[in-house]
Amino acid sequence: MSKDKVFIFDTTLRDGEQVPGCKLDTPQKLEIAARLDELGVDIIEAGFPVSSPGDFNSVNLISKLVKNASVCGLTRAVRKDIEVAAQALKHAKKPRIHTGIGTSDSHIKFKFNSNRDAIIERAVAAVSYAKTFVEDVEFYAEDAGRTDNEFLARVCEAVIKAGATVLNIPDTTGYCLPEEYGAKIKYLKEHVTGIHKAVLSCHCHNDLGLATANAIAGVQNGARQIECTINGIGERAGNTALEEVVMIMRQHPNLMLDTNINSQLLNDTSMMVSRNMGMMVQPNKAIVGANAFAHSSGIHQDGVIKNRETYEIIDPAEVGVTESSIVLTARSGRAALAYRSKNVGYELTKTQLDKIYALFLDYADSHKEVTDEGIHEIMAQSGFEF
Ligand code: KIV
Ligand code: ZN
Questions:
Q1: Is the pLDDT of residue 142 over 90?
Q2: For an engineered disulfide with 94, which of 70, 283, 297, 385 has Cβ 3.0 to 4.6 Å away?
Q3: With contact defined as beta carbons under 8 Å apart, do 247 and 319 qualify?
Q4: Where does residue 231 fall: left (phi above 0), alpha (psi -120 to 50 degrees), or beta otherwise?
Q5: Pair 234, 315 in one domain
Q6: Distance between CA atoms of residues 99 and 104, nearest Å
């Protein structure tokens, strides 16, 4: 049985760029868009064209540049937004308008001072209007995570009838538990008439650290698009991390799901986004953090030197990392010292290793990490001739 394809909708340039202090200029956005296209994402959300002339210009230039992916522009359920987005996307080979409105009781009451029926009318009007410009129209039900499922199903049914091709079910506030979010997607699959005409999409925020788990629960329950960003950047605590969901599906073939992503570009793409945004990646970040393939305790190092799979579930080469690293610290054992010493030209006998290990521990206790330079110093102190 072949695997089902999950579409990857990258929103690094829109939701990701909402990170305070991480604004990108147009050349940077173009560089990232070209890389996302090469990486194999299916949809690039290039910006929110009505928000500023700069964003309009970037979406316009990205539309001209991108060869394979669909290019998408965000709008509110407002005619002017939709007209401006359509204009910005006019050169895209595959344009998509992403329009929507808040559907939770809190959004309906406090943001719109409205009621449920009026919200459905506005949602339908926005999708119908967007359809006059492009075929591919994605609808987002903002704060769907806290929207009552029965009402959410009514909204979805209405916008599918109006021509929506994709239904985005955002957990805007990152509130849902994975079971809850998965059950929401399942409910929509089972209760929305015409659901087979649209792709359900997961857009999960990370306020409780559950963005990735929720997106995976979504696809396990029938969603077939994940909205995500490189390094998981985005509003507040961020969005689902692209590299995480892609590798979860690769590492768990029993999910029978896969994406079009060339995973060997993940590490480099992460560094490129980090550099352009001036936002460092936390060292312990899954898949792309500096320590994701680094081993520092003696027990782990011994295992990895014997066989990488003892402590690594991913071959680093698969995500574009050249090799696992054995970091020498005062917690390292003889196996790691011998291994790293050999890498810099010292083939140690057992007697040499025993003596040098004692020197190494003294040295390591006063250094955070023992570098290649440090190894040379220890060898010089040892009195052995190499
Ligand atoms: O988090 C959210 O609800 C959004 C929508 C605008 C899609 O980013
Ligand atoms: Zn969002």
A1: yes
A2: 70
A3: yes
A4: left
A5: no
A6: 16
Which of 48, 51, 172 to probe ligand 1 with, by most ligand atoms within 8 A of CB? 172
The domain boundary residue, chosen from 277, 309, 340: 277
What confidence score (pLDDT) does residue 256 get? 98
Could you tell me if 346 and 271 lie in one domain? no
Q: Exposed, middle or buried by CB within 10 Å (0-12, 13-18, 19+), for 26?
A: middle
Q: What secondary structure, in 3-state letters, does 314-330 show?
A: CCHHHHCCCCCEECECC
Of the bound ligands, which one is closest to the alpha carbon of residue 48? Answer: 1
In a domain, 307, yes or no: yes
Q: What CATH number is given to the structural domain containing 48? A: 3.20.20.70
Are 269 and 305 in a shared domain?
no
Indicate whether 284 belongs to any domain: no
Asked if pLDDT for residue 21 goes beyond 90, the answer is no
| Domain end point (choices 247, 277, 307) | 277
Residue nearest to atom 1 of ligand 1 (CA): 172
Residue 287 within a domain: no
* 239 CA → ligand 2 middle, Å: 7
What's the CA gap between 191 and 381, in Å, rounded?
74
Q: Which of 74, 76, 226 to mutate to test the pocket of ligand 1 (most atoms within 8 A of CB)?
A: 74
Instruction: Tell me the two tokens of residue 293.
Output: 């393939």
C-alpha to C-alpha distance for 33 and 71, rounded to whole angstroms: 10
pTM of the complete model: 0.96
Which atom of ligand 1 has the smallest separation from the CA of 142? 3
Strand partners, 9: 43, 227
**Residue 156 and residue 70 share a domain:** yes
Whether the per-residue pLDDT at 23 is higher than 90: the answer is no
**Residue at 174 is within a domain:** yes
Residues with CB under 6 A from ligand 1: 15, 140, 142, 168, 170, 172, 203, 205
Q: Which of 15, 75, 152 to mutate to test the pocket of ligand 1 (most atoms within 8 A of CB)?
A: 15
Could you tell me the residue range of the domain that residue 115 belongs to? Answer: 4-277
Q: Which ligand is nearest to the CA of 98?
A: 1
CA 203 / ligand 1 centre spacing (Å): 7
Return the pLDDT at 22.
86
Ligand 1 atom with the smallest distance to the CA of 14 is 8
